Amino acid sequence: MSIDREALSAAFDAIDAAFDDLVARDCDGLVPREQLALLERCEKVRRRLPAVEHPLINGLARQATAEELGGTLSHAIAESALISRAEATRRIKEAADLGSRIGLTGEPLGPILAATAAKQCQGTLGPGQVAVIRKFYHELPSWVDAVTRAQVEAKMAMEGTKFRPEQIAKLAATLADCLNPDGNYRDEDRARRRGLTFGQQGSDGMSELRGWLTPEVRATVEAVWAKLAAPGMCNPEDESPCVDGTPNEQAIERDCRSAGQRQHDALNAALRALLASGELGRHNGLPASIIVTTTLAELEAAAGRGLTGGGTILPMSDVIRLARHARHYLAIFDKGKPLALYHTKRLASPSQRIVLYAKDRGCSTPGCTVPGYYCEVHHVNDWAKCHTTDVNELTLACGPHHRLLRPGGWVTRKNAKGDTEWLPPPHLDRGRPRTNTFHHPEKLLHDGDDDAP
Ligand SMILES: [Zn+2]
Description:
Strands 9-8-7-10 form a four-stranded mixed beta sheet. A two-stranded antiparallel sheet has the order 1-2. Strands 3-4 form a two-stranded antiparallel sheet. It is built from 19 helices and 14 strands. 47% of the residues lie in helices and 12% in strands. The model is unreliable at 339-346 and 448-453 (pLDDT under 50). Strand 1 and strand 2 (108-109) form a beta hairpin. The two termini are 45 Å apart. Bound molecules: zinc ion.
């Protein structure tokens, strides 16, 4: 089948024209029944759009190279549509479930969730229902056979056209119970669900911890808590907290923390002991450690905050508290200027890496969110040509982005401000070189337009 680009473009123009027409119309004279009916039609339009996106996303996933995308697929979609990485990832996963597939030998295959996909395309299933069905389907125990899976998916899709997402969620729970009344789950079912993530750091500096633990991890944490979260143990309010042995009577009596607070402090003590043990070895050429960067002014005033190589904002009180423990690096900057360190070694020195944590804070690719700990050091000017490793010629790049930088591929260069610009290879014309402001939101306030020369 040949591609008719003009017809595709004309179809989108028709949608735009229809929208222009709709928003310009006066709906005030309608009676409530008519207004509700039009809202229903709006919802139908909203529901159908993903059906247009799925083949586009799946096509990119199948064919586009990392070079063409400028990194991973979720990065490329997030950057072009200006949506969050999380939303881009969600759309990619939904497209994998609800879009058509191509088999190993190139034969076309229907969607994994065929009934749900058909009803989404008709506009009879909304995003809420689709999310419930996908979650239900993926949480089915692995022993449920393909025929049963297809049957329950079709049942859920059918009911989803008649009920709201919260009602469908109750149906999903009931169906899951009927299919698996004895709660038979295998290790692989549990392994699939396991995970642990941080939420965004709040304005008060606190972070929400979310996740699902396997029974093994729960049992392990339990054993650590039994020791370190006991009353009187690891109490930060004590002059010298008891972290091993048994706390004395006074320490136990003084301890007025809640069980939750004690468990929190125990986790901190356990992980700090692990870092201090040195048994984690090295990470990117530095001993596994907390690396904090801050400015001279903030440190002298004992106020303000530091930033870790992982992207965490630390109040100065925490920076100073951390400094009492081993395995912790502090890089200090005066008026935003990193020290110019010259090295004749190919590898960036540990001190240069610390400087980069402060300077770049994370991957320098436009729009990339990967923090410094997870980045590689890249020589902006080819080391083979200049034979010096000047920190001003270095930048951080995450794995997928670093791999784009090879002969004939993407290139980087430093602009007048010392920021790293990324340029696509000549055969991919994609406008002006850009820098990454994600790790430096304050630059948007100063410059307005960071891309300006
Ligand atoms: Zn990156």
